[in-house]
From TrEMBL:
Protein name, as recorded: Small ribosomal subunit protein uS4
Top-rank taxon: Bacteria
An annotated Gene Ontology molecular function: structural constituent of ribosome
Gene Ontology process terms (BP): ribosomal small subunit biogenesis; translation
Organism: Dysgonomonas mossii DSM 22836
Amino acid sequence: MARYTGPKSKIARKFGEPIFGPDKVLSKKNYPPGQHGNGRKKKSSEYGIQLREKQKAKYTYGVLERQFRNMFDRALASRGITGEVLLQMLESRLDNVVFRLGIAPTRAAARQLVSHRHIVVDGSVVNIPSYSLKPGQLVGVREKSKSLEVVGEALSGFNHSKYPWIEWDQATMTGKFLHLPERADIPENIKEQLIVELYSKN
């Protein structure tokens, strides 16, 4: 499956946020890419602002355009506030929940763990990062993968009470997807209404 593999620090600096996870470059260079970030700033158009927000969401959750558009269409057809439903769909992805549970340090690392068959859902191996979890489902580390160094390091000292829609059982290394998150509980700095406005123009 195609994934963004370009310069992540450059993208993070563009948005001024560590959207791919902790970034040493971002802390050292807190200005946009370019000649010391001093290029003449063009005033963004309404379309430009909306497009930027969509790009931020795509990069944050590691979703490419076609998949993102399909998710938006499903959100639009469902009950509820379209932008909020879209974020709930993104948060329900298996790779994102693995990241939220602290099993992996970044979403990219979570995708790799899922793809390499280290993660189980309700006891069965699932190797599809975009797999959509339903409330009540259990996500855990495969028995023979529990000793992986990357998993141990990620879980070490991780605060599992950060996200009220999931709970973690350290003894079994299993998390439960309790319910869809409320918008106020999702920490990502994404203005989803701008994305709705952008796609509404097409």
